[in-house]
């Protein structure tokens, strides 16, 4: 004789606090989408006059594309150089703090890195113009003498206020962001993964290479993209350092501009079509930043399967 028991479905009790928290979370997510859409619509509507204007009426007299592409090139070049310089240094600092330094030393270094992120942009700009650019000027002259046959180093600036100087200052500015994110991700590496690698005879570096870096790579990519977003949108530091002029591929010469610096220097006095040009340039920067973040999200999603977190 067998008996069967019927399981009665348990009624889920939803407390008021859960309902409030769930509604607030959904509302916050929707609010972000609404704000993003509102910014995109505003920029698009205000930029239409610049897109449809007679090319002769645009600032350079050859149309909006001819006006904006040097700004895009300067923005992308400065941001890429900053990211290439800052990322390996930031990852190295994060690994030292998380896996090499003593706890007390690591805490002090972490505090200093976080404090560096709080320094205002204008301070970095003044330091870059008054101190860093002056120190780099002799180096630029040396590059011109020995590597002047390369277009990037065709002529060195006597003042040091060049695109390369601005890029290096941007690298210093985004260094704390990448370091902080990478450090926190490395500290989340499962202890069992690290101990298993060491138990198999791996050295500390081999353990980091096989266990820590694969686990933390999505986080490093995310931190790098956050830093790249900061570099793409940086305004005051770049505007203070650069000497505005015609775009060229020469990284150590005067000239070159970025979209944020162009907007910051000209927006207060702009009106009419000139104002639409600057807003259209902002729309281009908005699209570039959105594309970079979507690309980073795609990379992180692809690598998450192999991060060791599963």
From TrEMBL:
Topology term for the membrane: Multi-pass membrane protein
Keywords: Cell membrane, Membrane, Phosphate transport, Transmembrane, Transmembrane helix, Transport
Pfam families to which the protein is assigned, alphabetical: BPD_transp_1
Record field: transmembrane: 20-48, 68-96, 108-129, 149-178, 278-300
Entries under SUPFAM superfamilies matching the protein: MetI-like (SSF161098)
ABC transmembrane type-1 domain mapped to chain residues: 72-296
InterPro entries associated with the record: MetI-like, MetI-like_sf, Phosphate_PstC, Phosphate_Transport_Permease
Main localization (coarse): membrane
Cellular location(s): Cell membrane
Cross-referenced CDD domains: TM_PBP2 (cd06261)
Domain of life, source organism: Bacteria
Function: Part of the binding-protein-dependent transport system for phosphate; probably responsible for the translocation of the substrate across the membrane.
Family label: Belongs to the binding-protein-dependent transport system permease family. CysTW subfamily.
NCBIfam families per the UniProt record, alphabetical: phosphate_pstC (TIGR02138)
PANTHER family reported in the protein's UniProt record: PHOSPHATE TRANSPORT SYSTEM PERMEASE PROTEIN PST, PHOSPHATE TRANSPORT SYSTEM PERMEASE PROTEIN PSTC
Protein name (database record): Phosphate transport system permease protein
């Amino acid at each position: 004789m067998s008996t069967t028991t019927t399981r009665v479905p348990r009624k889920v009790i939803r407390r008021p606090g859960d309902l409030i928290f769930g509604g607030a979370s959904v509302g916050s997510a929707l609010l972000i989408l609404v704000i993003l859409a509102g910014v995109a619509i505003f920029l698009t509507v205000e930029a239409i006059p610049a897109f449809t204007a007679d090319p002769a009426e645009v600032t350079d007299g050859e149309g909006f594309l001819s006006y904006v592409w040097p700004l895009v090139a300067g923005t992308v070049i400065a941001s890429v150089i900053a990211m290439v310089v800052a990322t390996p240094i930031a990852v190295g600092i994060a690994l030292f703090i998380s896996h090499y330094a003593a706890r007390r030393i690591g805490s002090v270094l972490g505090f200093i890195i976080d404090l560096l992120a709080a320094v205002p942009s204008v301070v970095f700009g003044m330091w870059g113009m008054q101190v860093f650019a002056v120190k780099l000027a002799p180096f630029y002259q040396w590059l011109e003498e020995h590597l002047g046959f390369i277009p990037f180093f065709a002529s060195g600036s006597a003042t040091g206020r060049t695109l390369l100087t601005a890029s290096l200052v941007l690298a210093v500015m985004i260094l704390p962001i990448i370091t902080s994110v990478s450090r926190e991700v490395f500290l989340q590496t499962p202890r069992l993964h690290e101990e298993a690698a060491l138990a198999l005879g791996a050295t500390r570096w081999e353990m980091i290479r096989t266990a820590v870096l694969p686990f933390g790579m999505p986080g490093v990519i995310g931190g790098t993209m956050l830093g790249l977003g900061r570099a793409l949108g940086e305004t005051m530091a770049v505007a203070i350092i650069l000497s505005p002029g015609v775009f060229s591929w020469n990284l150590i010469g005067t000239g070159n501009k970025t979209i944020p610096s162009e907007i910051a220097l000209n927006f207060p006095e702009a009106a009419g079509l000139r104002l639409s040009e600057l807003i259209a340039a902002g729309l281009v920067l908005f699209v570039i930043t959105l594309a970079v973040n979507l690309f980073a999200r795609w990379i992180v999603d692809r690598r998450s399967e192999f991060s060791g977190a599963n």
